[in-house]
Design brief:
By secondary structure, the chain is an alpha/beta fold. Helices cover about 45% and strands about 15% of the residues. The strands form three sheets. It has an eight-stranded parallel beta barrel, surrounded by four helices. Strands 1-12 form a two-stranded antiparallel sheet. Helix 1 packs across helix 15, helix 4 runs parallel beside helix 5 and helix 14 packs across helix 15. The longest helix has 17 residues. The N and C termini lie close together (about 10 Å). The mean pLDDT is about 90.
């Protein structure tokens, strides 16, 4: 696979660079805390390219199994920390802020395997307690423990209260900036506010009431002026064959050029064409990475996260011109505006460090074929 890369991905496991780690989240795979073979599953996923995982104590765990799940989290982290196998960036999704301290209380050596916690239904009321809990966990463990709030509350979704919520959330997160790794978008709960479950033929951006919320989240919290945070994409729910109402979202020509038309049919049959479309729209709307609930989705997210040679050339060109101005790109197919495109270029080079840069002529189809086979 290395022959596909002009610049290979960098290792990031030991990094303390918050921006680099946020970009490295990639496809964040959720797994129930009560899964019987949890430690082995996490190790297997790491071998197959998963860069971040969330051990879920919230929706994926029944109420009567919650205490079992908490014990499983501690045991799993201790097992992974004591072993020699690589593991992804690991987070625990808790039900409430008190659970953060409870997990830290029972961790042994497993503390070194824990990257942070995910805070569901984060809002102006619950947010301060969550952030104080992760600050206390960082102090007790002697290193930064990150928090990732999930924005999905009704107060955020409702138009009348959204600006108030986002203003307060922005203030809260800014007070704990160094411990907020990324802001996650909980589109499933947003849809439930209106009794909606989006169809697999549609992206989340086709659901206007939710797309509007995402746009406002990025507007408040995704700015590149030093006040913003990395925003991650909402989950794609589908992974099985179904009868289609609309045409597939993948053009045939890129697959024909790579002699991969049957591979295109495989992607369509697994609803991955819709996922690929949504990933593209995520990035177009200022969002990096994505929540996933099935291992088959990881390859799609990561293949589209690799920086193309053309993007890399444009980014270098833009950043070399300190004086501003406008010039044709190296590929002679667009104009690079040095000042307006600078933030994009910096994000692109950060993504290049984590996911690498393709050689000329290597397409997303080529990458997908290799990654899906892993």
């Amino acid at each position: 696979m290395r022959h596909m890369f002009h610049r290979a991905p960098e290792a990031f496991g030991g990094s303390t660079d918050r921006d680099l780690l946020a970009m490295a989240l990639g496809a964040t795979l959720y797994v129930p805390a009560t899964r019987a073979d949890l430690a082995a599953t996490i190790s297997r996923r790491a071998e197959r390219g998963v860069t971040s995982m969330v051990i879920d104590l919230e929706d994926a765990v029944a109420d009567h199994e919650l205490e079992l799940g908490k014990r499983a989290v501690a045991t799993t982290l201790d097992t992974l920390a004591a072993g020699t196998d690589a593991h992804p960036l690991l987070f625990v999704r808790v039900r409430d802020a008190d659970t953060v301290g409870e997990i830290v209380d029972v961790l042994g050596g497993g503390a070194s395997a824990l990257t942070g916690f995910v805070f569901p239904k984060f809002d102006s009321g619950s947010g301060a307690k969550y952030l104080d809990a992760v600050a206390e966990a960082s102090e007790r463990l002697g290193r930064t423990v990150f928090g990732m709030p999930v924005l999905e509350s009704r107060a955020l979704v409702h138009r009348q209260t959204r600006d108030h919520e986002l203003n307060h959330i922005q203030e809260l997160l800014s007070q704990h900036r160094e411990r907020v790794l990324a802001v996650r978008v909980g589109a499933t709960d947003m849809c439930s506010t209106f009794g909606i479950r989006r169809d697999r033929d549609l992206t989340i951006y086709d659901v206007r009431v939710v797309a509007d919320v995402i746009a406002d989240i990025v507007n408040y919290l995704g700015r590149t002026d030093g006040t913003g945070f990395t925003i991650t994409g909402p989950v794609w729910e589908y992974f099985a064959d179904h009868e289609r109402m609309f045409r597939p979202l993948l053009r045939t020509s890129p697959f024909a050029e790579s002699d991969a038309v049957p591979f295109r049919q495989y992607l369509v049959s697994r609803d991955l064409d819709g996922l690929l479309r949504e990933i593209t729209l995520d990035r177009a709307n200022g969002i990096q990475g994505k929540t996933v609930i099935h291992p088959s989705h990881v390859a799609a997210v990561h293949a589209l996260s690799v920086v193309t040679h053309e993007e890399y050339a444009d980014a270098l060109h833009i950043l070399e011109a300190d004086a501003g101005g406008v010039a044709a790109s190296e590929y002679r197919n667009k104009m690079n505006e040095m000042r307006p495109h600078r933030s994009w270029a910096l994000q692109t080079l950060l993504r290049a460090r984590v996911f690498g840069v393709t050689n000329k002529g290597v397409s997303f189809v080529d990458l997908l074929k290799v990654l899906v086979a892993l």
